[in-house]
Amino acid sequence: MHATKGDQLVQHGRVVGEHDKVGEIVEVLGERGSPPYRVRFEDGHEGVCSPGPDTEIRHREIQL
Questions:
Q1: pLDDT per position as a tens digit, 16-39
Q2: Is residue 44 left, alpha or beta, with left meaning phi > 0 and alpha meaning psi from -120 to 50?
Q3: How far is CA 55 from CA 35, 40, 63, 64, in A?
Q4: CB-CB neighbours of 37 under 10 Å
Q5: Contact (Cβ atoms closer than 8 angstroms) between residue 48 and residue 38
Q6: What is the separation, in whole angstroms, between the first and last Cα of the chain?
Q7: Paired sense of beta strands 21-28 and 37-41, if any
Q8: Are 33 and 51 in contact (CB under 8 A)?
Q9: Taking 70 as the threshold, does the pLDDT of residue 64 lie above it?
Q10: Cα 40 vs. chain centroid, distance in angstroms?
Q11: Where does the record place the region Disordered (predicted)?
Q12: Are 7 and 58 in contact (CB under 8 A)?
């Protein structure tokens, strides 16, 4: 898993009825885009995250 600052981290709900948790990666703490990441979630909570298999990275579009 590789990410850059500004990408979205999406943690999918693991049980029926649980919503996905979406956050913006504000800092990459690992080498060459690897975890852990500092993430600011939609509810304002910020934390360090080492994503598991229920997580995806949505890369931001690069403007030319």
A1: 888 889 999 999 999 999 999 999
A2: left
A3: 12, 15, 25, 28
A4: 27
A5: yes
A6: 24
A7: antiparallel
A8: no
A9: no
A10: 8
A11: 37-64
A12: yes
